[in-house]
Design brief:
Number of strands: 0
Distance between the termini: 42 Å
Number of domains: 3
Order of helices and strands: HHHHHHHHHHHHHHHHHHHHH
CATH superfamily of the largest domain: Flagellar motor switch protein FliG, alpha-alpha superhelical domain
Oligomer: single chain
Length: about 350
């Protein structure tokens, strides 16, 4: 992008809007990590800008990412290129495993016009775009998306191909850069773009497990049943990496107490409507006597709740648990190496 053209696109956005575009491009968890280090006033300013953004063009988003990279490079006083600086900064802040996807989105998102653009699209539109592609192509594209978006896209795909796609994502073991570039170029043509994209560390068991975790419980259960019938060994590996609501009973007391402080009481009541006795008892034991009594009373007076509402509340709490686990504030024991 020409410098003068980029300047015009940047000039059309205020500082808060630029920050909003950057945070929206990172994803919920990563953006949350950044917001934690801002003042209340700054969070209100950036949050307001995020809520007020009606539409952002792809060129504007690219311009914001390019500008961010240039600012980092200019402000770096340790004598390294911007890319190295960003990598080291994010790895130090989040850990190597958690930072890897964020690094890809910041650094590779500057130039990619193909698969990266899919992250800005409605999930139904993505499903329609890849619906006629070979399942192997679908799996590569889905593995590149964030787990929650990939889960939504799979929900719009025909039921007969869903388990096949998940199994292919789990079996991905690195993609040659030239092959990924060719795929990206094909997609980029549909967005009138033509640029490079380099990445080979997508897919695998963890990616598939994360996508399954982000799905509605009923859909997740149906897919796992199909996968188990087809490949029991693969099913076992995926289950080892998945973390479900009842697994919260395996948290140590300190971790569970930390999690409960982050969960709204009304969401906890709904989520516990579908929890087993073991988890309920452990939660009661890790609350003050008065808080536990109030929670029991709320559960008793709470009328029937739709299963979909219970599922949504449990998924919400699991997202909080994974965020705390990824940041090292709690230990999600027993859910696989990814969460320890």
């Amino acid at each position: 992008m020409a410098a003068d053209s980029q300047s015009k696109l940047i000039a059309a956005l205020s500082g808060s809007q630029r920050a909003a575009v950057l945070l929206l491009s990172l994803g919920e968890d990563e953006a949350g990590q950044v917001l934690r280090h801002l003042s209340v006033r700054d969070v209100q300013s950036v949050g307001g800008a995020m809520a007020a953004l009606k539409s952002v063009t792809r060129d504007q988003a690219d311009a914001v990412l390019d500008s961010f990279s240039q600012v980092i490079e200019q402000q770096s006083t340790i004598g390294v290129a911007a890319e190295d600086y960003i990598r080291k900064m994010l790895i130090n802040a989040l850990g190597e495993e958690k930072a890897s996807s964020l690094i890809e989105r910041i650094l590779q998102g500057r130039t990619s016009k193909g698969m990266e653009a899919l992250k800005w699209m409605d999930s139904r539109a993505v499903a329609e775009m890849i619906g006629m592609e070979h399942p192997q192509i679908q799996s590569i594209i889905l593995a590149h998306l964030e787990p929650d978006q990939a889960a939504e896209v799979i929900g719009f795909l025909p039921q007969r191909v869903r388990s096949d796609v998940i199994m292919r994502i789990a079996s991905l073991d690195g993609i040659q850069p030239h092959a990924l570039h060719e795929l990206d170029a094909v997609i980029a043509q549909q967005f009138s773009g033509n640029n490079k994209f380099q990445s080979s560390s997508i897919g695998g068991y963890k990616a598939a497990a994360n996508i399954l975790n982000a799905m509605e419980t009923s859909v997740e259960a149906a897919l796992m049943e199909t996968i188990t019938k087809s490949d029991e060994n693969l099913s076992q590996k995926l289950q080892e990496l998945m973390f479900v609501f009842d697994d919260l009973s395996r948290l140590d007391d300190r971790s569970l107490q930390t999690l409960l402080r982050e969960v709204a009481s009304d969401r906890l009541v709904i989520a516990l409507k579908g929890a087993d006795t073991l988890l309920r008892d452990k939660i009661f034991a890790n609350m003050s006597k008065r808080a536990a009594e109030m929670l029991r009373d709320d559960l008793e007076v709470k009328g029937p709740v739709k299963l979909s509402e219970v599922d949504a509340a449990q998924k919400e709490i699991l997202l909080i648990a994974r965020r705390l686990g990824d940041s090292g504030q709690i230990s999600l024991g027993g859910g696989g190496e990814e969460y320890v």
